[in-house]
Specification:
Layout (H helix, E strand, L loop, with lengths): L3 H23 L16 H6 L5 E4 L5 E7 L2 H13 L5 H15 L6 E4 L4 H7 L3 H9 L7 E3 L11 H8 L3 E3 L1 H6 L5 E8 L3 H12 L4 E9 L10
Parallel strand pairs: 2-7, 3-6, 6-7
Antiparallel strand pairs: 1-2, 4-5
């Protein structure tokens, strides 16, 4: 069973998320996508979040499926969720993630494994981004991965630096591993950038005997040069 401290942290995160959602309904807001006043997300920006699934092949041969391009309105909305704590935006983003997961075509019995937030990010936000998005997408994620060591902020790092930064940063939770042993895995994250985070998650899971069949993300950064992955 989860420890008392783990249960307390989960309860506290749920309370913070619920309060943030409630406050978004009563406090003056601006559209997360275009700054239009008195609406959390206007119809035009909501339309910009309509999923247009695309896929990218990672270096290990796994295909990563994404619903949106991480630029313009989608990028602004995702940043508002992650940086401003506007958890009400998780619902439209969750619908995009649902499309990405379906595009990945998970086989029967596959488990959806979210990339874990760092402990510092969880403390700063009060919630874990990817599990929240999975929940709003209507899926049950299995917290098979956990942070293993502290990493630097990935923003501003190039592909090689990101790979070094995340190397050895995750571990498999033994208790959850035994519960889903032998089932194929789809790794889930919010944004695909260089591929480093997803590749490290896949390496960690494979080292524990799991078969990674695909990855799914809400959005992916535009591919500006050939051979670029996250």
């Amino acid at each position: 069973m989860p420890s008392p401290s783990s249960r307390s942290a989960t309860l506290a995160a749920a309370v913070r998320t619920s309060l943030a959602d409630a406050l978004a309904l009563v406090l003056p807001v601006e559209c997360a996508g275009c700054d239009l006043e008195d609406v959390a997300l206007c119809e035009g920006c909501r339309g910009a979040l309509a999923p247009r699934a695309a896929r990218r092949r990672l270096d290990d041969g796994v295909w990563a499926h994404s619903a949106l391009v991480f630029e313009g309105v989608p990028a602004r909305v995702i940043r508002c969720l992650k940086e401003d704590g506007r958890t009400g935006l998780a619902s439209p983003l969750g619908r995009a993630l649902r499309a990405a997961v379906r595009a990945a075509g998970p086989p029967e019995g596959a488990v959806l494994v979210p990339v874990p937030s760092s402990r510092a990010a969880f403390r700063r936000r009060g919630f874990a981004v990817t599990p929240l998005l999975l929940h709003r997408a209507g899926f049950r994620g299995i917290p098979l991965l956990a942070p293993h060591r502290v990493t630097a902020d990935q923003r501003g790092l190039d592909r090689e630096a990101r790979a070094v930064n995340v190397s050895g940063s995750m571990r498999v939770r033994a208790r959850h591993a035994e519960a889903v042993r032998g089932r194929p895995v789809v790794i889930v994250d919010d944004v695909l950038t260089t591929g480093a985070t997803l590749l490290e998650a896949a390496r960690t899971l494979r080292s524990a005997g799991f078969t990674v069949v695909a990855a799914a993300t809400v959005a992916a950064t535009p591919r500006r040069t050939s051979g670029t992955h996250r």
